[in-house]
Amino acid sequence: MRIVVAIEYDGAGFCGWQSQPDGCGVQDYLRNAIAQIAGHDVTLNAAGRTDAGVHALSQIAHFDVSAQRPLSAWVRGVNALLPATVRVIWAHPVPDEFHARFSAYSRRYQYLLINRPVAPAILSGKAGWHHAPLDSGAMDAAAKILLGEHDFSAFRAAECQAKSPVKTLHEAEVNRQGDAILFEFCANAFLQHQVRNMVGALVCIGKGEYPPEWIATLLAQRDRTQAPPTFPANGLYLVGVGYDSAFGLPACEQRLADLPVLIG
């Protein structure tokens, strides 16, 4: 039987999603917990690999099991074996042709940035921060230039293993509410560090260092060395993955606005 699960996690205490030799990845903890419930080893495939310090409100993964268990076992049973900062939200059976990564047609990320003179204490590790005033309107105008299909080499990590730098960005928005600035991006797929690199460039525009049109220049140059440094990971959240409705999955998306305790 193939089971798909939605996972929420605080990435601050992990070395990212991907399994590592020392067992520090979210994948390591989740795979070990599932194996204990299943009674055998499992292979866990996810929709995307989040970096160290990046959080998820709706990571999607699948695994195959031979053991017959109620769906509740893959939620409550697995959660009982996980650290408090990782939780399975739901579990659902799927046909063998479903693949958490290859069946996905979109991924959605949000980046939470606090813009005020003093760094937040309560949101330490949960949000990015910039001390100087930022023009969210200019950043939103620049973000719109990123829409569509582009070669995103200017926003690609040097160690990125993607076969092609060409991706299609379906949505790009920057909205402000008080001291909180929320960046939102939805694409068919993302390059390694792409979202954090785009946020870094947009913040430079928000500071007034460049006009919004500078984003088009960076895209055309296709040169990572000409773009600003990668923005910190702690404000980045994987919030949703898109799948065909034919799979009948529960909701695969949960945005920061659904967590009023976090952003107020």
Q: Could you explain how this protein is built, in words?
A:
The chain has helices spanning 26-38, 76-79, 136-145, 194-206, 214-221, 260-263; strands at 2-9, 45-46, 55-64, 86-94, 106-115, 128-130, 148-151, 166-177, 180-187, 236-242. By secondary structure, the chain is of the alpha+beta class. Strands 1, 2, 3, 4, 5, 6, 7, 8, 9 and 10 form a 10-stranded mixed β-sheet that branches. A hairpin with a 2-residue loop joins strand 8 and strand 9 (180-187). Helix 3 packs across helix 4. 38% of the residues are buried.
Task: Give the CATH architecture of the largest domain.
Answer: 2-Layer Sandwich
CATH superfamily membership of the largest domain, which one? Pseudouridine synthase I, catalytic domain, C-terminal subdomain
* Morphology call: globular
Kindly report the average pLDDT value: 95
- CATH class category name of the largest domain: Alpha Beta
Oligomer: single chain
Count the E strands.
10
Helix and strand sequence: EHEEHEEEHEEEHHEH
* Helix proportion range: 10-25%
Kindly give the count of domains. Answer: 2
Low-confidence stretches: none
Q: What is the third-level CATH name, the topology of the largest domain?
A: Alpha-Beta Plaits
Q: Could you tell me the radius of gyration in angstroms?
A: 19 Å
Number of helices: 6
Report how far the terminal alpha carbons are from each other: 41 Å
